[in-house]
Amino acid sequence: MCFGSCARCVGYKLLILALLCIVANTLLYFPNGETRFASEHHLSKYVECLHGILGGGFLVLIAAAVFIGLHNDACCGCFGHGGCGKSCAMLSSVLAAFVGILGSGYCIIISALGLSQGPYCRTHLERNWIYPFTDSSGGYLFEYNKWSECQEPQNIVQWNVTLFSILLVLGGIEFILCFIQIINGILGGLCGLCCSHEETYVC
User: Fold this and answer.
1) How many whole angstroms separate alpha carbon 118 and alpha carbon 150?
2) How do 129-130 and 150-152 pair as beta strands?
3) What is the pLDDT of residues 155-165, one digit of tens each?
4) String of b and e for 113-126 (b: at least 16 CB within 10 Å)?
């Protein structure tokens, strides 16, 4: 099994997922493409946690960059053995995978909390900016007839549910991929990167 190729494959997938997380989190700031709600601080507190930009975004990008860069590793070896430099690099990639897990886990948690609490909006009844679905513990997600309670921003419930759900799924996939890389990195570090048929690594 080529552990290095697996790491690079994971890295490229994480790169795409991280960029999607950044885009999704950015869109949360601009309901219906309008900027005034962000400038007036009329957004859910979980939008401002930057879970998709920092967590599922930049932290995962760090891990992705490490995984992709493994094939360019120029380590001259460790413990006096020139052939085990890449094995050391694979083991170090486990640390990067933990960073990715931290970021994706943060993205998952905040996305779930954002979905559970619901959007911050101006309602018909209260005529004020509140969290109308806080007490529903996420039950509003299946009560579509109540979504119209939010008067402003328009369609904010659909906007938040869609983007928070996307971030939840993306964060989940990132978490799984980083966990896979932890296993891959440990195995690769112990057994060595597979290269050509001329090179043999013994565990």
Assistant:
1) 10
2) unpaired
3) 999 999 999 99
4) bbbbbbbbbbbeee
| DSSP string over 32-84 | GG-SHHHHTT-S-TTGGG-IIIIIIIIIHHHHHHHHHGGGG-----BTTBGGG
Dihedral Cα 54, 140, 36, 32, nearest 10 deg: 90
d(CA 48, CA 28): 9
What confidence tens digit (pLDDT) does each residue in 66-114 have? Answer: 999 876 544 434 444 444 555 667 777 899 999 999 999 999 999 999 9
Enter the DSSP assignment of 31.
G
Distant-in-sequence, close-in-space partners of 31: CB < 8 Å, separation ≥ 6: 37, 43, 153, 154, 155, 156, 159, 160
List the structure tokens of 180: 């896979």
Give the span between the Cα atoms of 54 and 39, in whole angstroms: 20
